[in-house]
Amino acid sequence: DPALYHPMSSDAVDYRPLERIDPRDPPARTARCGIWMRANGTMGDDPGVHTQMLAYMSDSYLMSTALLPHAITYDHPSMQTASIDHGLWFYEDFRADDWLYYHLVSPRAGGGRGFNIGCIYTRDGRLVATAVQEGLMRRQFTPR
């Protein structure tokens, strides 16, 4: 239930991770996480607008999931990260302004790249979309 978790900020999207991770000192952990998310405010009834919003929302937390085993966050000053590709499949209608559960896993992270998969469910458990992303993730070293 998303009400059990605290919002991260007051941006256009309300993201509520199941677990808080200290961005300054994250622990190494399994490459999986869960996020409740929804667009802030009420959106109209056009399914295309909800699809566009979910495409935007789905780009969050993918790269972060691949970095979890490495005990570093994507926005750390020494990290260089970029999305190499991002795919999104839609299966059913949904509302982006209602709570959606984003279950993320990263089955592979190494060699400067991370592969990420996210399944997006409605509150009643319907799988409405799947996202995949491969991203660049490497440390930038400064010469001596």
> Shape from CA axes?
elongated
The number of helical runs is 2
- Give the terminus-to-terminus CA distance: 50 Å
Q: How are helices and strands ordered from N to C?
A: EEHHEEEE
Mean pLDDT: 88
Helix content: 10-25%
The biggest beta sheet is recorded as:
6 strands, antiparallel
What oligomeric arrangement do these chains adopt?
A: single chain
Strand share of the residues?
35-45%
Strand runs, count? 6
Low-confidence stretches: none
Structural class: mainly beta
Radius of gyration based on Cα positions: 16 Å
Order of strands in the sheet with most strands: 1-2-4-5-6-3
Please explain how this structure is put together:
This protein is mainly beta and 144 residues long. Helices cover 12% and strands 41% of the residues. It is built from two helices and six strands. The chain has helices at 47-57, 62-67, and strands spanning 13-17, 32-39, 79-90, 100-110, 113-122, 127-139. A hairpin with a 2-residue loop joins strand 4 and strand 5 (113-122). The longest helix is centred in the middle third of the chain and has 11 residues, at 47-57. The model has no long low-confidence stretch (mean pLDDT 88).
